[in-house]
Amino acid sequence: MINRRGLLVILSSPSGAGKSTLSRRLLEWDDSLRFSVSATTRAPRPGEVNGEHYHFQSEADFKRDVANGDMLEHAHVFGNFYGSPRKPVQTAIDAGRDVLFDIDWQGAQQIVNSALGPHTLSIFILPPSIAELRRRLESRGQDSAETIGKRMLKSWDEISHWGSYDYVLINDDLDQTFERLKTIVTATRLRRLQQPGLVDHVRKLQQEFEELA
Ligand code: ADP
Ligand code: 5GP
Question: What's the mean per-residue pLDDT of the chain?
Fold first, then answer.
């Protein structure tokens, strides 16, 4: 019997605030955590590996998967389609494993409002300032000036949804943010709902208690 129920950990932020960096750290910290590899129609960045960072797909294939109900959520972001394939997530959570999502506010809302909603933990990452957000996007060195400009213009759209997340972290000092993130994940894993095995444990305690009488 599975004595825990998988948690869906959702990280969102404006592009450049640090969610990929924090995701990477979380996955290194706990190798039982599964990363939900999204499908996207955008072109790979230098160093991105198909099947590891994203499943890079044609628009036709992406739309077919959506029509077949194979995406848990999907959205149009910065002119490209992005979505979370349903099957690997379902397999992981059914086996009691937690799954990490790096997705935008539209995807977060779709999952939180689905039947899986009670098993989600949503966290929004804010930058310390807009100037620092730009500096981080530039220092990442992976996007053209035009793409950075587009992402900066869209950053307020994303930030404006901060209020619908369970937790909000201001990612100023990376180590401190990461410590806080681990604390949030650790505490949420102890939620009653994530521990279906508790019912049996309490029944056993009750039996032991009754045997006392
Ligand atoms: P996102 O995934 O949100 O687009 P990234 O994780 O790619 O953002 O971070 C953007 C850039 O900012 C990267 O170069 C990363 O190393 C850097 N970065 C992330 N967090 C911090 C931080 N707390 N302080 C300074 N630089 C950071
Ligand atoms: P990037 O192109 O920088 O990798 O991602 C751009 C934006 O798309 C980020 O905000 C990222 O979180 C979001 N994103 C990545 N994958 C998905 C997904 O599967 N679904 C949704 N809704 N957003 C995604």
Answer: 95
Measured between its terminal Cα atoms, the distance across the chain in Å is 30
**Measured CA distances, 24 to 14, 27, 38, 192, 210 (Å):** 17, 5, 15, 27, 49
* CATH number of the domain bearing residue 14: 3.40.50.300
pTM of the model: 0.94
Which pLDDT tens digit goes with each residue over 189-205?
Answer: 999 988 888 999 999 99
Q: Is residue 56 part of a domain?
A: no
| 1, pLDDT greater than 70 | no
Residue 161, in any domain of the structure: yes
In this structure, are residues 167 and 173 in contact, taking their beta carbons and an 8 Å threshold?
no
Task: For residue 42, tell me if it sits in a domain.
Answer: no
- Residue 154 Cβ inside 6 Å of ligand 2? The answer reads no
Residue 126 DSSP SS3: strand
Cα(7) to ligand 1 centroid in Å equals: 25
Does residue 58 sit within a domain?
no
Cα of 82 to ligand 2 centre, how many Å?
6
Atom of ligand 2 nearest to the CA of 38: 19
For the chain, how many structural domains are there in total?
A: 1
Residue 21 CA, closest ligand 1 atom number: 6
Measured in Å, residue 65 CA sits from the centre of ligand 1 at 31
Q: How confident is the model over 11-32, as a mean pLDDT?
A: 96
